[in-house]
Amino acid sequence: MPMGSLQDVTQFIQLAVAPVFLLTGLAATMTIFINRLSRVVDRGRFLEGKPAPISKDDQEELFSLERRAQLIYRALLFGVTAALCVCLLMTIAFAGEIFRWNASRIVATLFMLALFSYTAALLCLLREVFLAITNFSLGIHHVSPK
């Protein structure tokens, strides 16, 4: 098994920095997803803990919370898929370098899949935020100025 020089390995590790930055961004984004999901779950538990009968407004809010939770779940699924693709592409890239086989197509495909998955995750987040804002109210009634 021919090994490259230390300079070759160092150069290859430098090329691996871009996927590491992508993984860091994915981790930060998934933290946002988890925090949003926690808030949705907490609010849902609060509403479900109210004494029966549940008001129509609370039922509508619970329905909205369920849709939001499903969107966040999908966002997490796409985010984890993107992270797995990045991990696989880094592993295959290193294996290709060590065993001297051309892994460029597989690596490029995995990178594109990671970006598509990350894009899908962000779109789910955006949709969830739109749902949250649609149902948001501070209780302030707009009064027209006289």
Description of the molecule:
With 146 residues, this protein is mainly alpha-helical. The chain has one domain (6-134). The chain contains four helices and no strands. The chain has helices at 6-15, 17-48, 56-99, 104-134. Helix 2 packs antiparallel against helix 3 (56-99) and helix 3 (56-99) packs antiparallel against helix 4 (104-134). It is rod-shaped and about 70 Å long. The model has no long low-confidence stretch (mean pLDDT 87).
List SSEs in N-to-C order. HHHH
Number of separate helices: 4
Approximately how much beta-strand content do the residues carry? Answer: under 5%
Structural class: mainly alpha
What average pLDDT do the residues reach?
Answer: 87
Radius of gyration (CA) equals 23 Å
Shape: rod-shaped
Q: Alpha-carbon distance between the termini?
A: 84 Å
Q: Percent helix among the residues?
A: over 70%
Major sheet description? none
Low-confidence region ranges: none
